[in-house]
Amino acid sequence: MYKGIAASRGIGIGSVCVIAEHDLTYEKKKIEDTAAEKERFNAAVEKFKADTMAQASDIRKRIGPKEAEILEGHLVMISDPSMSGEMSKMIDAGQCAESAVEAVCDMFIGMFSQMDDDMMRQRASDISDVKTSLLKLLLGIEEVDIGKVAPGTIIVARDLTPSMTSQINKENVVGIITEVGGKTSHSAILARALEIPAVLSVPDITKIAKDKDSAVVDGTEGTVYLNPEGDVLSSYVIKREDFIRKQAELKGFLGKPTVTADGESRELFCNIGTPKDAKKAVECDGEGIGLFRSEFLFMDNNHLPTEDEQFNAYKEAAQTLAGKPVIIRTLDIGGDKDIPYLNMKKEENPFLGYRAVRYCLGNEETYKLQLRAIVRASAFGKIKIMVPLVTCVEEIRKVKELVSGIKKEFDANGTPYDKDIEVGCMIETPSASLIADFLAKEADFFSIGTNDLTQYTMSVDRGNADVAYLYSTFQPSVLRSIKHIIECGRNAGIPVGMCGEAAADPLMIPLLISFGLTEFSVNPVLVLTARCIISKWSKKEADALAEKVMSLPTEGEIVKALKEAVKE
Ligand code: PEP
Ligand code: MG
Q1: Which residue would you say has higher pLDDT here, 66 or 203?
Q2: 293 CB under 6 A from ligand 1?
Q3: What is d(CA 543, CA 279) in angstroms, rounded to the nearest whole number?
Q4: What sections of 363-465 are H helices per DSSP?
């Protein structure tokens, strides 16, 4: 049995497919038969073109035209005589195909990465992709196409990038195991959105597991079994059926209001990353969007999305929600979210660095573009603006000032927008928590980001497996912080929501009911689970449990007390 981080609930039983990281080193040799070498090179280029064309048309059908255009751009590049022509010339001069590919690509990568224009710099990373693909073909390295693995596959990889995860066909992949990543890494969030059981941060699993090994992934407990014995396997077949049955029971909560056992209403919203996810939120019966992670729009593009592109995305989400609230978090980049074309500096401590609202206020033109797009979209639904990583009052004041400026401009030129558009504050840093009373006077609403609040309160990197044992929202310090933030919001009469992953935790929900949280924002697939759990707790019972728990000094004791009381 191997232990890892339980990242996406459910039981997966299937056959392993290891996604290996390839060694692209080769021997540089002088070529005598240059004609044969050119033939080998041309064959690789033709295969590259055919593969890329097929992938682009598949992506166009499954995901969309914009995503397909990135691959089509690779075809244009390799067909350019200054690229393949130069490579051919080098082979004529006696270089091997691998070294010709590497030299020409590196020359262009160096050139493009020096340029000031974002679009041009993005070319550098596209050429790097082309180089890797050509080298793999020349070295005879077989690529596993994640989108085409057989039904019943368990993917084992060192890491899954969000773009790899988005290629996964959920009909075929029944489990995910990785060597890195934590509960709130973006691949974990995507795995949950796809409802695929996932266990992350299992040490050395890519070396231990072999293709075609049978495996069990318990994404609820964070355990993995390779080639399990008969009795382990049969107990997991039962557990899997049990899980599926419970999921079916939850369907009874579809279309029902979200109320506690004693009839108090709560709002139950969803976290989304793209306007397409907004449909999923509605299908899953979410009552609004509590967190639209707008940075995905920026990450999924090879250029800074224009004001109109952003406006269309926000408008689409607002229209999909048909008047229900859509809280758009402004650009939250940096930390573990890089956007290559923005060419952000590499930092020693990215989580403590130039990220989120800090980057936005330092790049006002980029930020204003986004705020204008959001304010324009507010004419099409109930949009709210939310500011991430606030640490001081000046930040929220500055954002409100920018929004006021945009409103004045729109008033002057007759652009329609919602005059009552709210500006709220994410509370996800210890500083914001400690000054929550001041911030509550400035913000129209709060949303607690427990993913970061836990990281910063406990001083643990949220993706580092070695310190994951400290990364818990049930640490007394984190619980005190959450309670305090909610109290400050209530005293000031503003609503307080939670959009961190803890909002859907069955152990956390009774505490949040007791503290007085007004809005829970969860992954769309967890809406019914959260509604079911909320319905089981009365305020009185939740208060009794909270009183006991808040008097306990250790995370271990707190979790034990909550597990004893949990109603699932
Ligand atoms: C959080 O920090 O809790 C949060 C919701 O934001 P993200 O996970 O995107 O940092
Ligand atoms: Mg955060």
Answers
A1: 203
A2: yes
A3: 36
A4: 364-377, 393-413, 430-434, 436-442, 450-458
CB 452 less than 6 A from any atom of ligand 1: yes
Whole-number Å distance between alpha carbons of 331 and 282 = 23
Q: Which residues are catalytic?
A: 186, 499
Q: How many angstroms is it from 351 CA to the middle of ligand 2?
A: 10
Asked whether 450 lines ligand 1 (CB < 6 A), one says yes
Torsion angle defined by CA atoms of residues 403, 407, 409 and 414, in that order, rounded to the nearest 10 degrees:
150
pLDDT digits 0-9 by tens, 480-523: 999 999 999 999 999 999 999 999 999 999 999 999 999 999 99
Q: Count how many residues are written for the chain.
A: 568
Q: At what angle do helices 307-321 and 364-377 cross, to 10 degrees?
A: 30
Does the reported pTM lie above 0.85? no
Q: What percent of the chain has pLDDT over 70?
A: 95
Closest by Cα among 330, 340, 336 to 349 = 336
d(CA 304, CA 328): 18
**Assigned token pair, 293:** 């992670």
Helix 476-492 / helix 450-458 crossing angle, nearest 10 deg: 130
What Cα–Cα distance (Å) separates residue 510 from each residue in 324, 449, 489?
Answer: 25, 18, 19
Which residue in 120, 129, 213 sits closest to 163, CA to CA?
Answer: 129
Q: What is the pLDDT of residues 434-481, one digit of tens each?
A: 999 999 999 999 999 999 999 999 999 988 889 999 999 999 999 999
Mean residue pLDDT across the chain = 91
153 in contact with ligand 1, CB cutoff 6 A:
no
Minimum-distance ligand 1 atom for the alpha carbon of 291 = 5
- For ligand 1, atom 8, the nearest C-alpha belongs to 451
The single-letter code of the amino acid at 472 is S
Q: What is the pLDDT of residues 38-89, one digit of tens each?
A: 999 999 999 989 988 887 787 677 655 655 677 788 888 888 888 889 999 9
Tokens in use for 275? Answer: 């306007």
Q: Which among 355, 428, 460, 523 is the best mutation to test ligand 1's pocket, defined by most ligand atoms within 8 Å of the CB? A: 428
